[in-house]
Amino acid sequence: MNNDIEKVLISEEEIKQKCQELGARLTKEYEGKFPLAVGVLKGAMPFMSDILRAMDTHLEMDFMDVSSYGGETRSSGEVKIVKDLDTKVEGRDLLIIEDIIDSGLTLSYLVDLFKYRKANSIKIVTLLDKPEGRKVDIKADVVGFHVPNEFVVGYGLDYKEKYRNLPYVGVLKPKIYGGE
Ligand SMILES: O=P(O)(O)OC[C@H]1O[C@H](OP(=O)(O)OP(=O)(O)O)[C@H](O)[C@@H]1O
Ligand SMILES: Nc1nc2[nH]cnc2c(=O)[nH]1
Protein backbone atom coordinates (compact mmCIF):
# COMPACT_ATOMS: atom_id res chain seq x y z
CA MET A 1 0.00 0.00 0.00
CA ASN A 2 2.79 2.46 0.88
CA ASN A 3 4.27 1.84 -2.57
CA ASP A 4 1.20 3.46 -4.15
CA ILE A 5 2.03 6.84 -2.60
CA GLU A 6 3.81 9.47 -4.68
CA LYS A 7 4.47 11.92 -1.85
CA VAL A 8 3.68 12.33 1.82
CA LEU A 9 2.05 15.71 2.52
CA ILE A 10 1.60 15.40 6.28
CA SER A 11 3.56 12.90 8.32
CA GLU A 12 2.30 10.67 11.12
CA GLU A 13 4.37 12.67 13.62
CA GLU A 14 2.93 16.01 12.44
CA ILE A 15 -0.61 14.63 12.77
CA LYS A 16 0.10 13.34 16.28
CA GLN A 17 1.46 16.70 17.42
CA LYS A 18 -1.45 18.57 15.86
CA CYS A 19 -4.02 16.34 17.62
CA GLN A 20 -2.36 17.04 20.97
CA GLU A 21 -2.30 20.80 20.29
CA LEU A 22 -5.91 20.98 19.09
CA GLY A 23 -7.11 18.67 21.86
CA ALA A 24 -5.57 20.97 24.49
CA ARG A 25 -7.20 23.99 22.85
CA LEU A 26 -10.62 22.31 22.77
CA THR A 27 -10.26 21.20 26.38
CA LYS A 28 -10.12 24.89 27.37
CA GLU A 29 -12.91 25.91 25.03
CA TYR A 30 -15.31 23.27 26.40
CA GLU A 31 -14.38 23.47 30.08
CA GLY A 32 -17.48 22.91 32.21
CA LYS A 33 -19.59 21.91 29.19
CA PHE A 34 -20.71 18.53 27.88
CA PRO A 35 -20.32 18.80 24.11
CA LEU A 36 -21.70 16.31 21.61
CA ALA A 37 -18.87 15.32 19.30
CA VAL A 38 -20.28 14.36 15.90
CA GLY A 39 -17.95 12.29 13.72
CA VAL A 40 -18.70 12.37 10.01
CA LEU A 41 -18.17 8.81 8.76
CA LYS A 42 -16.16 7.24 7.45
CA GLY A 43 -13.24 9.56 6.85
CA ALA A 44 -13.23 11.33 10.23
CA MET A 45 -12.79 8.12 12.22
CA PRO A 46 -8.98 8.18 12.83
CA PHE A 47 -8.89 11.95 13.46
CA MET A 48 -11.88 11.79 15.80
CA SER A 49 -10.31 8.99 17.76
CA ASP A 50 -7.03 10.88 18.22
CA ILE A 51 -8.32 14.38 18.87
CA LEU A 52 -11.01 13.35 21.36
CA ARG A 53 -8.49 11.31 23.35
CA ALA A 54 -6.41 14.48 23.56
CA MET A 55 -9.34 16.33 25.18
CA ASP A 56 -9.48 16.27 28.96
CA THR A 57 -13.17 17.01 29.31
CA HIS A 58 -16.42 15.09 29.49
CA LEU A 59 -18.11 14.70 26.13
CA GLU A 60 -20.55 12.50 24.27
CA MET A 61 -19.82 10.88 20.90
CA ASP A 62 -22.14 10.15 18.03
CA PHE A 63 -21.74 9.52 14.32
CA MET A 64 -23.37 10.66 11.14
CA ASP A 65 -22.78 9.27 7.68
CA VAL A 66 -23.53 11.56 4.78
CA SER A 67 -22.48 11.12 1.22
CA SER A 68 -21.73 13.93 -1.20
CA TYR A 69 -19.76 11.97 -3.73
CA GLY A 70 -20.22 9.33 -6.42
CA GLY A 71 -17.92 6.34 -6.59
CA GLU A 72 -14.73 8.21 -7.35
CA THR A 73 -13.19 11.62 -6.88
CA ARG A 74 -15.69 14.06 -8.37
CA SER A 75 -18.44 15.77 -6.46
CA SER A 76 -21.97 15.07 -7.67
CA GLY A 77 -23.16 18.08 -5.68
CA GLU A 78 -25.67 15.89 -3.84
CA VAL A 79 -25.68 15.27 -0.10
CA LYS A 80 -27.72 12.48 1.41
CA ILE A 81 -27.98 11.05 4.92
CA VAL A 82 -26.75 7.45 5.04
CA LYS A 83 -26.82 7.19 8.85
CA ASP A 84 -28.35 9.78 11.17
CA LEU A 85 -27.41 10.61 14.78
CA ASP A 86 -28.96 8.64 17.63
CA THR A 87 -28.71 11.67 19.91
CA LYS A 88 -31.03 14.70 20.16
CA VAL A 89 -29.26 17.85 19.01
CA GLU A 90 -31.57 20.48 20.54
CA GLY A 91 -29.74 22.61 23.09
CA ARG A 92 -26.44 20.78 22.66
CA ASP A 93 -22.99 22.22 21.97
CA LEU A 94 -21.92 20.38 18.81
CA LEU A 95 -18.37 19.67 17.85
CA ILE A 96 -18.44 18.44 14.26
CA ILE A 97 -15.32 16.43 13.43
CA GLU A 98 -14.31 16.10 9.78
CA ASP A 99 -11.28 14.80 7.94
CA ILE A 100 -11.47 17.34 5.10
CA ILE A 101 -13.42 20.35 3.83
CA ASP A 102 -13.18 20.49 0.07
CA SER A 103 -16.22 21.85 -1.80
CA GLY A 104 -17.84 22.55 1.59
CA LEU A 105 -21.11 20.90 0.48
CA THR A 106 -21.07 18.24 3.19
CA LEU A 107 -20.49 20.62 6.06
CA SER A 108 -22.78 23.30 4.77
CA TYR A 109 -25.56 20.70 4.66
CA LEU A 110 -24.76 19.47 8.17
CA VAL A 111 -24.56 22.95 9.70
CA ASP A 112 -27.96 23.89 8.22
CA LEU A 113 -29.41 20.60 9.51
CA PHE A 114 -28.07 21.09 13.04
CA LYS A 115 -29.25 24.72 13.14
CA TYR A 116 -32.70 23.51 12.10
CA ARG A 117 -32.50 20.94 14.91
CA LYS A 118 -31.77 23.82 17.32
CA ALA A 119 -28.20 23.11 18.44
CA ASN A 120 -27.04 25.58 21.09
CA SER A 121 -23.68 26.02 19.37
CA ILE A 122 -21.82 24.45 16.45
CA LYS A 123 -18.07 24.25 16.07
CA ILE A 124 -16.43 22.68 13.00
CA VAL A 125 -13.11 20.93 13.50
CA THR A 126 -11.36 19.56 10.43
CA LEU A 127 -8.00 17.92 10.05
CA LEU A 128 -7.59 19.22 6.48
CA ASP A 129 -8.83 22.27 4.65
CA LYS A 130 -8.63 22.54 0.86
CA PRO A 131 -9.77 26.15 0.30
CA GLU A 132 -9.29 26.04 -3.48
CA GLY A 133 -11.98 23.34 -3.75
CA ARG A 134 -14.72 25.47 -2.21
CA LYS A 135 -18.10 25.70 -3.94
CA VAL A 136 -20.01 27.13 -0.98
CA ASP A 137 -18.91 29.70 1.57
CA ILE A 138 -18.12 27.79 4.75
CA LYS A 139 -15.19 27.98 7.15
CA ALA A 140 -14.04 25.64 9.88
CA ASP A 141 -13.47 26.99 13.39
CA VAL A 142 -10.47 24.73 13.92
CA VAL A 143 -8.20 23.56 11.07
CA GLY A 144 -5.29 21.15 11.41
CA PHE A 145 -3.56 21.68 8.04
CA HIS A 146 -4.21 23.36 4.71
CA VAL A 147 -3.72 21.14 1.66
CA PRO A 148 -3.28 22.06 -2.01
CA ASN A 149 -5.92 21.33 -4.62
CA GLU A 150 -4.93 17.69 -5.06
CA PHE A 151 -6.78 14.48 -4.22
CA VAL A 152 -5.33 13.28 -0.93
CA VAL A 153 -5.57 9.90 0.81
CA GLY A 154 -4.66 8.41 4.15
CA TYR A 155 -5.59 8.86 7.82
CA GLY A 156 -9.27 8.25 7.03
CA LEU A 157 -9.31 9.56 3.48
CA ASP A 158 -9.92 6.94 0.79
CA TYR A 159 -9.60 6.27 -2.89
CA LYS A 160 -12.26 3.65 -3.73
CA GLU A 161 -12.38 2.69 -0.02
CA LYS A 162 -8.64 1.97 0.15
CA TYR A 163 -5.84 3.87 1.97
CA ARG A 164 -7.95 4.99 4.96
CA ASN A 165 -5.57 3.05 7.21
CA LEU A 166 -2.43 4.88 6.13
CA PRO A 167 -1.05 6.69 9.20
CA TYR A 168 -0.18 9.81 7.17
CA VAL A 169 -1.76 11.97 4.44
CA GLY A 170 -0.35 11.73 0.93
CA VAL A 171 -0.97 11.82 -2.79
CA LEU A 172 -1.27 8.69 -4.95
CA LYS A 173 0.95 7.88 -7.88
CA PRO A 174 -0.88 8.76 -11.15
CA LYS A 175 -0.71 5.12 -12.30
CA ILE A 176 -3.03 4.12 -9.43
CA TYR A 177 -5.88 6.21 -10.86
CA GLY A 178 -5.36 4.87 -14.36
CA GLY A 179 -4.41 1.37 -13.40
CA GLU A 180 -7.81 -0.38 -13.13
O1 LIG B 1 -16.30 19.43 1.32
P1 LIG B 1 -16.79 18.28 0.51
O2 LIG B 1 -16.48 18.46 -0.96
O3 LIG B 1 -18.23 17.98 0.74
O4 LIG B 1 -15.93 16.99 0.87
C1 LIG B 1 -15.68 16.55 2.16
C2 LIG B 1 -16.32 15.25 2.46
O5 LIG B 1 -15.92 14.28 1.49
C3 LIG B 1 -15.42 13.13 2.14
O6 LIG B 1 -16.44 12.24 2.48
P2 LIG B 1 -17.06 11.15 1.52
O7 LIG B 1 -18.43 11.63 1.11
O8 LIG B 1 -16.09 10.83 0.42
O9 LIG B 1 -17.28 9.92 2.48
P3 LIG B 1 -16.23 9.10 3.38
O10 LIG B 1 -15.84 9.98 4.54
O11 LIG B 1 -17.01 7.91 3.80
O12 LIG B 1 -15.05 8.76 2.50
C4 LIG B 1 -14.85 13.68 3.43
O13 LIG B 1 -14.76 12.70 4.43
C5 LIG B 1 -15.82 14.77 3.80
O14 LIG B 1 -16.90 14.28 4.57
N1 LIG C 1 -9.99 10.93 -0.27
C1 LIG C 1 -10.42 12.17 -0.48
N2 LIG C 1 -11.71 12.48 -0.27
C2 LIG C 1 -12.07 13.75 -0.48
N3 LIG C 1 -13.28 14.33 -0.34
C3 LIG C 1 -13.15 15.62 -0.68
N4 LIG C 1 -11.88 15.91 -1.02
C4 LIG C 1 -11.19 14.75 -0.91
C5 LIG C 1 -9.82 14.39 -1.12
O1 LIG C 1 -8.94 15.19 -1.50
N5 LIG C 1 -9.51 13.09 -0.88
Structure description:
- The protein is an alpha/beta fold and 180 residues long.
- It has one domain (2-178): Rossmann fold.
- The chain has 4 helices and 9 strands, in the order βαβαβββαββββα.
- The protein has a 6-stranded mixed β-sheet, sandwiched between helices.
- β3 (60-69) and β4 form a beta hairpin.
- α1 (12-29) crosses α2.
- The longest helix has 18 residues, at 12-29.
- The protein starts with a strand and ends with a helix.
- It binds 1-O-pyrophosphono-5-O-phosphono-alpha-D-ribofuranose and guanine (GUN).
- 1-O-pyrophosphono-5-O-phosphono-alpha-D-ribofuranose binds next to β2, β3, β5 and α3.
- Its main location: cytoplasm.
- It is an enzyme of class 2 (transferase).
- Belongs to the purine/pyrimidine phosphoribosyltransferase family.
Distance between the termini: 15 Å
Briefly note the structural class of the backbone: alpha/beta
Tell me the name of the CATH class.
Alpha Beta
CATH A-level architecture = 3-Layer(aba) Sandwich
- Could you please say which CATH topology applies here? Rossmann fold
Poorly predicted residue ranges: none
Q: Helical content, roughly?
A: 10-25%
Count, helices: 4
Largest sheet: 6 strands, mixed
Query: Could you say which overall geometry the principal axes of the C-alpha atoms support?
Result: globular
Domains, number: 1
Associated small molecules: 1-O-pyrophosphono-5-O-phosphono-alpha-D-ribofuranose, guanine
- For the biggest β-sheet, the strand order reads 4-3-2-5-6-7
> Beta-sheet strand percentage?
25-35%
Round the Cα radius of gyration to an integer and report it: 16 Å
Instruction: Please tally the β strands and state the result.
Output: 9
User: How are helices and strands ordered from N to C?
Assistant: EHEHEEEHEEEEH
